[in-house]
Design goal:
The chain is of the alpha/beta class and about 240 residues long. Helix 2 runs parallel beside helix 3 and helix 3 crosses helix 4.
Length: about 240
């Protein structure tokens, strides 16, 4: 069987160099690429402009999709106007990622969402977000860590009987954390698979097995916390089963 092709939703940025004129790049973090390769998949970065132009053509080669971390989610996609606490958001990126998500749902492609990608999948299914964790009720722990991305900074509780539990085990799990937004209203057809001690939604999934989302960054933990590698192994496995 051929290796499954995993489309990684691309981000864009301007180069900043003294040696040549600045230009826009489509990119993803190298740890996303490494995590897919490590588990037998073929990573392919899908530029947002290509999805906006023709999602069918851009994604037809893919057996599954990875939605990585990124900037804040554009609030009007979940029916809100931006509040002063929100960070940078990019409607052109979010529009492309949501188009990709709709394509994946239509074609039954397995998806894994990480941090902003996890939030995007919730919005894809009709859910909403807290534009900043300061808007969440109750006392909130630190979710924007101040150390290396490979560092484990707080714990989540993984719900028994969920797909996430079958991947990383039920109960207490230490994670890294680099976000200031979170899931508010859960999307249709989704269930919560993990929470932090302050109630922050840290994992979501659907019953069909197409969607798995986590709020932390497992791609940066495959060496320091090898259990996180299982999330990528599971994505590749789901893609192989579809193939």
């Amino acid at each position: 069987m051929k290796k499954p092709v995993i489309g990684i939703m691309g981000l864009t940025r301007k180069t900043d160099s003294v040696h040549y004129v600045s230009g826009e790049q489509a990119f993803t973090g190298s740890t996303n690429v490494r995590a897919i390769l490590k588990n037998g998949g073929i990573p392919v970065i899908i530029p947002p402009a290509a999805i906006a132009e023709d999602a069918e053509a851009a994604l037809s080669c893919c057996d599954g999709l990875l939605f990585p971390g990124g900037e804040d989610m554009t609030p009007w996609y979940y029916g809100e106007e931006p509040l002063p606490v929100i960070g940078v958001f990019r409607p052109e990126i979010d529009d492309a990622w949501l188009k990709a998500g709709r394509y994946a749902l239509e074609h039954k492609l397995p998806m894994l969402g990480i941090c902003k990608g996890h939030q995007t999948l919730n919005v894809l299914m009709g859910g909403s977000l807290y534009q900043d964790l300061s808007l969440q009720e109750g006392k909130v722990i630190q979710h924007l860590q101040k150390y290396n991305r490979t560092y484990l900074t707080h714990h989540v509780e993984v719900e028994e009987g969920t797909r996430l539990a079958s991947i990383v085990g039920a109960g207490t799990l230490a994670t890294n954390s680099m976000h200031h937004q979170s899931v508010k209203e859960l999307g249709k057809g989704l269930k919560i698979s993990a929470r932090a001690c302050d109630g922050t939604v840290e994992g979501i999934e659907d019953e069909e097995g197409l969607i798995v989302g986590v709020q932390w960054h497992p791609e940066d933990l495959v060496d320091s916390a090898p259990v996180m590698n299982r999330l990528f192994a599971d994505l590749v496995k789901r893609c192989k089963e579809r193939m």
